[in-house]
Amino acid sequence: xxxxxxxxxxxxxxxxATTVAGGAYAAESLQDVMKRRGLNEKDMLAAAKTYTPxxxxxxxxxxxxxxxxxxxxxxxxxxxxxxxxIGVFTPEPWQGYGFDDESKAVxxxxxxxxxxxxxxxxxxxxxxxxxxxxxxxFVFINDKNNPRIAxxxxxxxxxxxxxxxxxxxxxxxxxxxxxxxxYVIEASQYPAPLGGEYVPLEQFNDKYRGAVTYWKFDKSKGxxxxxxxxxxELPPYTQDLSxxxxxxxxxxxxxxxxxxxxxxxxxxxxxxPYEAGCSANDHDYLHVVNWKKAEEVYKAGKVTKIKDxxxxxxxxxxxxxxxxLVPEPKSPHGVDVSPDGKYIIVGGKLDSNAHVYSxxxxxxxxxxxxxxxxxSYGVPIIDVKDxxxxxxxxGLGPLHTQxxxxxxxxxxxLYVDSQVAKYDYCEGxxxxxxxxxxxxxxLMTMEGDTTKPKGKYLVAMNKLAIDRFNPVGPLHPQNHQxxxxxxxxxxxxxxxxxxxxxxxxxxxxxxxxVKPAIRYKFGTNSRTDQQSAFAVRPGGEKVVKNGNKVEVYxxxxxxxxxxxxxxxxxxxEVTFHITNMERAQDEVHGFAVSGMDVNLSLEPGKTASASxxxxxxxxxxxxxxxxxxxLHLEMEGYLMVKPKGAQQMAGKVExxxxxxxxxxxxxxxxxxxxxxxxxQVVAYxxxxxxxxxxxxxxxxxxxxxxxxxxxxxxxKADEAAKKEDWQQATxxxxxxxxxxxxxxxxxxxxxxxxxxxxxxxxx
Length: 763
Ligand code: K7E
Ligand code: CUA
What we know:
Layout: H1 2-17, H2 30-37, H3 41-50, E1 60-65, E2 71-77, E3 82-87, H4 101-109, E4 126-130, E5 133-143, E6 148-153, E7 158-164, E8 176-177, E9 183-187, H5 204-207, E10 210-218, E11 223-224, E12 230-234, E13 239-244, E14 252-257, H6 274-277, E15 283-290, H7 291-299, E16 304-306, E17 309-312, H8 314-319, E18 323-329, E19 332-337, E20 343-348, E21 353-358, H9 359-367, E22 373-374, E23 380-381, E24 388-393, E25 398-403, E26 409-414, E27 419-424, E28 429-435, E29 440-446, E30 455-462, E31 478-484, E32 491-498, E33 506-510, E34 524-525, E35 530-531, E36 542-546, E37 549-557, E38 560-562, E39 565-569, E40 572-580, E41 589-593, E42 599-602, E43 607-614, E44 618-623, E45 636-642, H10 661-686, H11 694-722, H12 726-756
Parallel strand pairs: 12-17, 37-40, 39-45
Antiparallel strand pairs: 1-2, 1-33, 2-3, 4-5, 5-6, 6-7, 8-9, 9-10, 10-11, 10-12, 13-14, 14-15, 15-18, 16-17, 19-20, 20-21, 21-24, 22-23, 25-26, 26-27, 27-28, 29-30, 30-31, 31-32, 34-35, 36-37, 37-38, 40-43, 41-42, 41-44, 44-45
Bound molecules: sulfanyl-(tricuprio-$l^{4}-sulfanyl)copper and dinuclear copper ion.
């Protein structure tokens, strides 16, 4: 057993290495490096503001829409390091999302009229709020193309639920939350008959409609409750974005629109295209909805059911006075309520002003029923004079607005000018402008859409990157630019290429509010957050055959699956349910079977299932897809798919190596030697105040598990040795040693941590 000796020596070296500290400084000076790389002092300052040394954490977590990738991208600010892609509307194999049974069930909730949809066009992530502030618990995101909303739980950063809007054919004004996450708002985009039936375009004005849906969110369950959700019917004005009122305007929501001309294109018939017909008028309409009143009307049952979904009709909405319109600049985009809830800022893509509306004025007009007229559906229109606070001339193509921690300071993106404008929206004064690269869509400040923006940083989400990065073919990455907004002048700090989809909105939460778990409770189905019915503990593994259904209840732990050899028959429907027994941080196992299109991501404590049909006889290796330990490559097994009617495997397995007593003795001795090393490490750890370090306590728990497994394996080795079965005895002694190595590895990690973090002698 040469390998055992080799490893034993490596072990000693590892132990020694932990006591060698420090290293040489680079020979180059800072000046040398600046010269060599052509950096000036401003660059160095920007670098110092974003550079995050190893082990350092970010102050904010950004959640970016993944655009057409149907995912959410998580990155840190100010380092702009990407931390995770969360599979939402699209399968994501690394996380097993769409490849295990549990997540397939989540994706299936997003089927539209029974049709599986494997992508989404995500635009607007929203963070759950308590009293108007981000609470770091949930993220919601919309799918513009197939009107859907998804719920991500920040306990584990997994998608838990997808709801399909029952009455819309497309949407854009989602996801926006009310200040206590009572509702997640979703507004339609392209008008269509509500409920999805066919109606010729000739009847557009009469039969096509927009709508805004208020999805009830149940905070304690962490799920949207469709049975408590309702919609308000709107005119066919191509509703766009939304925002919820806050503080003084709590209880109201705002949805802008474009193409209130209700133009129906037809370029193929020689008619001018949509873009001409939809930008003819000088203004469109901001929809102002009293959602608290709408909620009362819904609860009073004054609704019409469309596809079983309660809808407050336009007629009822007008009668109840819960909907009014306010003219807004030509082809507007973006509607953002100020942190104090007093102002609503709308950008007009074809108007160079930001329109700052006063909620107080709007409310006064509503109370006095002071209307300039009605639209052709009878919805009252407030005169723009009676609603506007200021028009601020910003530049070309104003789109989205975010707020600073400083009072009255806002930032609006200028798409055409490729700039960010900073201005005082109370006084209507431009304060600063900065160029970005290029053609900015959304922008985002830290918690800038809540009642308590944190200031500090702004991210410009640029649609075009053009020449900013190394070319990677005609499809360029997006360019997210980090801007320092702590001073009077905005300063560009960093360009981050985003190589996934076309992100639209991004929102950021203070990192200390987000407290994800490091492991699941034993046997958790992470998609339901419930104990999985398929979880088993070590020793309880089994294979259950029922007709042509074969269910494998297995476990995974460094570095083996139980069971390892699974025999089924051609045509069987096979499911592997695997529970990861690990408790240690970051000890994830994967599970993939050759040719079966399944991959599991088994985080510590998780149970996940892979189902497939074994439709062709053959030998199918399965293995762990995460490099989980030194013997990761040995974390393997075989699915034997026998031809129909084939005999059971006959006789004993012929092994490649035959072991004799000398092999056993050698292996046994190396186990005893290793135990001495482990005892030293344990003695060191227990001599310190290790209990004051939670991450060390977790490591110690894990090492203790491994040592218990080691004890079991040793007992098996001893038993086989008693029977002089040197084959079994040597192999079990080898397994004993494997567990020891894992325990020692963890122990050394704990020891290093204690040494580097100032552990003191135990009292
Ligand atoms: Cu402006 Cu969908 Cu918010 Cu894109 S939207 S930019
Ligand atoms: Cu488990 Cu690799």
